[in-house]
Design goal:
Shape: globular
Radius of gyration: 20 Å
Number of strands: 27
Strand content: 35-45%
Structural class: mainly beta
């Protein structure tokens, strides 16, 4: 019996090692410091690059990675694998990867509210949910004006507890990332009031809004418009903490495809980028005025990202089929 068990364990270990080798495949981290994939586009970016840090691939073998969210109290990261209908978990201490939730209803964007609970955008159910401390699921929003939402995409939580999310139609356009259905609402940006739980439209003038993030002082909101060619990044002023005014174009993406973004404590925008080709796939970094200052090249398109680690100085990158990370010499602004 013992011999049989040993043989089983040995065979399982060998199979796992073979799968891991195949999964990690062709890409290898740079052997050099500084990592040549971290590019200084403008001299102002030099101080943000850690010269002895490399891009690391933490896990691979997924279908379409999105919505990373860091849980510092548990030292783990959650992110969505949308077509595989699951939320994945990576543990900082051990590097272990496991399934956190399946089915996830084709979850996309994730973040934490100001009480530390998980907020999730679900394509299949066309709703935003909150995971309570005991694991129960609460529906935060699933309709507006009596009509179902399209497919909530990305989400952030402001310091006053309000929840802001985008609602493009991507999850209802086919069966790969959701369920095909006819959109019944415009593609809006919404706000959920923390006291009344009332849902309001804060921006109805963005064609397929995608990623969004607040400036460190929450005086501005950045929104990626995915329904234009080229894609655009807009910035709004936040008036009275609850209204968006003075929309203006900040970045014209040209041939690139910005998707999700987060902001550091200096107000720089770190934007998931791609178009399926070398030189575009990865992360583009812009200063608060929209000037490109840095690049992180990846072997695949980066959909979304977040800051994490003990000091919020580790960038986690959800990039197509893989999860990557990079230590940087700044910190992520709270709330993302």
């Amino acid at each position: 019996m013992a011999s049989t068990r040993r043989q089983f364990l040995t065979a399982g270990t060998a199979a796992a090692a073979t799968l891991a080798t195949r999964a990690h495949g062709q890409w290898q981290p740079s052997q050099r410091y500084p990592d040549p994939s971290i590019k200084i586009v403008d001299p102002s970016f030099a101080k943000y690059r850690v010269n002895s840090a490399k891009v690391e691939r933490l896990a691979t073998g997924f279908r379409w990675c999105e919505g990373p969210a860091w849980f510092g109290d548990g030292r783990y990261l959650l992110w969505s694998d949308i077509p595989n209908d699951r939320i994945m978990k990576w543990e900082e201490e051990t590097g272990a990867v496991s399934v956190f939730r399946k089915p996830s209803h084709n979850s996309n964007g994730n973040t934490r509210d100001r009480q530390g609970r998980l907020l999730t955008c679900e394509h299949e159910t066309r709703r935003v949910t909150r995971t309570e401390y005991d694991g129960a699921i609460t529906v935060v929003a699933d309709s507006y004006d009596g009509k179902p939402l399209n497919s909530p995409n990305d989400i952030v939580c402001k310091s006053d507890g309000s929840i802001w999310f985008t609602d493009p139609p991507f999850g209802v356009l086919g069966y790969y990332e959701g369920q095909m259905a006819k959109p019944e609402l415009p593609t809006n940006v919404y706000r959920v009031d923390p006291r009344t739980e009332r849902l309001t439209v804060v921006a109805g003038d963005v064609n397929r809004p995608n990623g969004l993030a607040f400036s460190p002082d929450e005086a501005r909101l950045y929104v990626i418009e995915a329904g234009t060619s080229p894609r655009l990044i807009h910035v709004y002023d936040v008036e009275g903490g609850a209204r968006l005014v003075n929309k203006r174009r900040l970045v014209d993406a040209g041939p690139g495809t910005p998707d999700g973004l987060r902001v550091d404590v200096d107000g720089n925008l770190w934007v998931g980028w791609g178009m399926g080709e070398e030189g575009l796939d990865g992360v583009s970094i812009f200063n608060p005025d929209g000037k490109p200052i840095g690049r992180i090249d990846l072997p695949e398109r980066c959909a979304n990202l977040c800051f994490g680690g003990r000091h919020r100085n580790r960038l986690f990158l959800a990039a197509s089929t893989s999860l990557y990370s990079l230590y940087v010499n700044t910190q992520g602004a709270p709330g993302g």
